[in-house]
Amino acid sequence: MIPSQFDRSLTINSSALIAGLRRAELVAGDRASMVKVNVSGSQLIITANSDTTGNAYEELEVEQSGDDLTIAFNARYLIEILTHVDSPQIKMEFLGPLSPAAIRPSDQAEGVQQMYVLMPLRQ
In whole angstroms, what is the distance from residue 35 CA to residue 73 CA? Predict the structure, then answer.
């Protein structure tokens, strides 16, 4: 289930990501709380669409390595994971838009390994 290695990664401020996801989740509504995350260059763009409540659009700064990626997640699950990562910066690693994503603190203490895995949604 967990890929042995990832070809894309990003580092981002966890509180900014949580805030952006919470705002997008309000728009996403009941449709599995689907939010799309587009990583392009040094930008992470969070979008959510709903026929009844409109659209959400958030831009955040990231440090990226690897190719650009667009991936969709259940916002509630991602927020839940992020609230348990005790670090001001998080590292997210990806293999592709349909492969599991790994989420971990960017500054793990020696001897401590914390990692969460989240399956993306089909877009």
Answer: 6
